[in-house]
Amino acid sequence: QGVLVSGLGTFAVVQDQFHGTQEIYEVRRPVFQLDMDEFFVEDVAFPTVVIPDSVTIKPLNFSWLSRATSFPRHVVEGCVQETILLYSFHLRNKERLDFIFKDIGVLSCKNDVLCMRFFYECVVGLESKASCLALLHT
After folding, report:
1. Is the pLDDT confidence value at 135 over 60?
2. Does the residue 134 lie in any domain?
3. 23-53: pLDDT as tens digits
4. Which GO CC terms are listed, alphabetically (predicted)?
5. What is the domain extent for residue 12?
6. How far is CA 74 from CA 21, 59, 63, 99, 116, in A?
7. In the prediction, which pLDDT does 26 show?
8. R_g of the chain, CA atoms, integer Å
């Protein structure tokens, strides 16, 4: 399952296998795949994340956000688009601000590397059995 935030990227949950000394661990972990206009990130490096084809990706649900915030859909959609555009311009102008996603993590640019750092609670909320392994590989 994943959510495409147009102009920014895709948040998804992937399942990976990791080999331990005596067993194989299957863990669910969050990933972020950047999909921002190259104009804004031409001087910035970012990790390449591949989301498997088996993961269902849906666009951000503006109708749901509208109901959750009590703002009209067009207002919510405009706010999201303008926030992404503002963050993009900050990156382009070499202003390295953190972009915080409540309950998910922080998109930050340190030393010209743009990276999504997921909150501890987000990772362990997805994976209860092997949360330490999921944290190490996220």
Report:
1. no
2. no
3. 777 778 899 999 888 777 888 888 888 899 9
4. microtubule organizing center
5. 2-129
6. 53, 15, 9, 22, 28
7. 78
8. 16
